[in-house]
């Protein structure tokens, strides 16, 4: 049973790392020597590497907010899991952990969908931070569902 | 002793009016406005002397990317003279109060061609040594949203809702424990839990 616990914890940590990297790295769209969103537009010119702040449009700010919220909620669910692991009554379920994790997955999903729909059609392709967001969404959903069915040992 | 002090103060006050002192002029730094709207460009000054009757205000305009300034407003001798030939004809109105050191003007029906720098120069004789102050006007079609406003708003609302839900949850638990409320589902809830125990994965 220790393996299940360890596995669940490792999965949670992986999800948290994926979310943090996806939120912090500014490479949701990449082009030839250009990488943009979520926070900076950076380009490599002959003079070097220059960054300026990303555009202030509404949808980019919404994606920023949703990604930050998902990181916060994933982190809170980790804290709640560790807390409930030691303080839950025997036979109890990890409700708080599950709720926070599922909310985090919903926020990542909303952020990734908004970015997919609203990002400009021309030119750039999607970068690795965008891919990580889409990978983190099903992982966090599965993790949240595992927490719902998990029960503390009698 | 007192007479010496009185004489000294009179002499000093008598000397000072002969020199002119610096006058400090205040305008905004930058103003944003929408096309078609009106904007009030404020200009006030600080001077060590009382506001004289010969106080003058003058506003000049320099378009973006140009090096020439044109004069669009002048107030002198109690009369305001507005632009009646240049780009601002019939659009400038004097809304200041010279007695209160306010030389503000109102520009109506803004257009994209009005982007530029407006300079206010005020003189309060004999205080004429001063540096004119400039305000930059930016005309937008739609006012841009500052970075981080929507981000902060969404995060704040969600976290606020979370705190609210947690508070309500603990409040309800507290009130149920104190028998203020009684939940009729409590008996059903217990039976359901015991029934489904066998089917769960256990840690």
Automatic annotation (TrEMBL), chain A:
Membrane topology: Multi-pass membrane protein
Similarity comment: family membership: Belongs to the PMP-22/EMP/MP20 family.
Any one cellular-component term (Gene Ontology): plasma membrane
Principal location listed in the UniProt entry: membrane
Keywords annotated in UniProt: Membrane, Signal, Transmembrane, Transmembrane helix
Name of this protein: Peripheral myelin protein 22a
Annotated signal peptide: 1-25
Subcellular location: Membrane
Species this chain originates from: Kryptolebias marmoratus
Transmembrane segments: 62-82, 94-115, 127-150
Pfam families given in the database record: PMP22_Claudin (PF00822)
UniProtKB/TrEMBL annotation, chain B:
PROSITE patterns tied to this protein: IG_LIKE
Ribosomal protein in keyword set: no
Signal peptide residues on this chain, from the entry's feature table: 1-22
Transmembrane segments: 145-171
Pfam families tied to this protein: V-set
Keywords: Disulfide bond, Glycoprotein, Immunoglobulin domain, Membrane, Signal, Transmembrane, Transmembrane helix
Keyword Glycoprotein: yes
Domain Ig-like: 17-136
Record-linked InterPro entries: Ig-like_dom, Ig-like_dom_sf, Ig-like_fold, Ig_sub, Ig_V-set, Myelin_P0-rel
Matching SUPFAM superfamilies: Immunoglobulin
Domain of life assignment: Eukaryota
Record membrane topology: Single-pass type I membrane protein
Any single GO BP term: myelination
Subcellular location: Membrane
Main location: membrane
Gene Ontology cellular component list: plasma membrane
Family: Belongs to the myelin P0 protein family.
Name the UniProt record assigns to this protein: Myelin protein zero
């Amino acid at each position: 049973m220790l393996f299940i616990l360890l596995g669940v914890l490792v999965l949670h940590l992986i999800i948290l790392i994926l979310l943090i990297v996806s939120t912090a790295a500014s490479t949701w769209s990449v082009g030839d020597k250009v990488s943009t969103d979520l926070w900076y537009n950076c380009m490599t010119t002959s003079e070097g590497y220059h960054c300026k702040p990303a555009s202030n449009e509404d949808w980019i700010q919404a994606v920023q907010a949703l990604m930050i919220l998902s990181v916060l909620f994933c982190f809170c669910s980790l804290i709640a899991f560790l807390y409930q692991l030691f303080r839950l009554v025997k036979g109890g379920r990890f409700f708080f952990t599950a709720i926070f994790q599922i909310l985090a997955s919903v926020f990542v999903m909303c952020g990734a969908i908004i970015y997919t729909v609203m990002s400009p059609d021309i030119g750039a392709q999607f970068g690795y931070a965008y891919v990580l967001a889409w990978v983190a969404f099903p992982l966090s959903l599965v993790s949240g569902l595992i927490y719902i069915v998990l029960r503390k040992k009698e | 002793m007192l007479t010496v002090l009185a004489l000294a103060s009179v002499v000093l006050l008598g000397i000072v009016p002969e020199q002119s002192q610096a006058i400090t002029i205040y305008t905004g730094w930058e103003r944003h406005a929408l096309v078609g709207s009106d904007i009030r460009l404020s200009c006030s000054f600080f001077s060590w002397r009382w506001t004289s009757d010969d106080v003058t205000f003058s506003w000049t305009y320099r378009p973006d990317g140009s090096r020439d300034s044109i004069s669009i407003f002048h107030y002198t001798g109690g009369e305001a003279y507005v632009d009646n030939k240049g780009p601002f004809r019939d659009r400038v109105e004097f809304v200041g109060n010279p007695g209160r050191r306010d030389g503000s003007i109102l520009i109506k029906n803004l257009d994209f061609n009005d982007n530029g720098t407006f300079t206010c120069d005020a003189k309060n004789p004999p205080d004429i040594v001063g540096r004119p102050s400039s305000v930059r006007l930016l005309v937008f079609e739609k006012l841009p949203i500052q970075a981080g406003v929507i981000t902060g708003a969404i995060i704040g609302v969600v976290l606020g809702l979370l705190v609210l839900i947690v508070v309500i949850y603990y409040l309800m638990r507290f009130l149920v424990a104190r028998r203020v409320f009684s939940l009729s589902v409590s008996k059903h809830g217990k039976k359901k839990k015991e029934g489904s125990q066998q089917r769960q994965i256990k840690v």
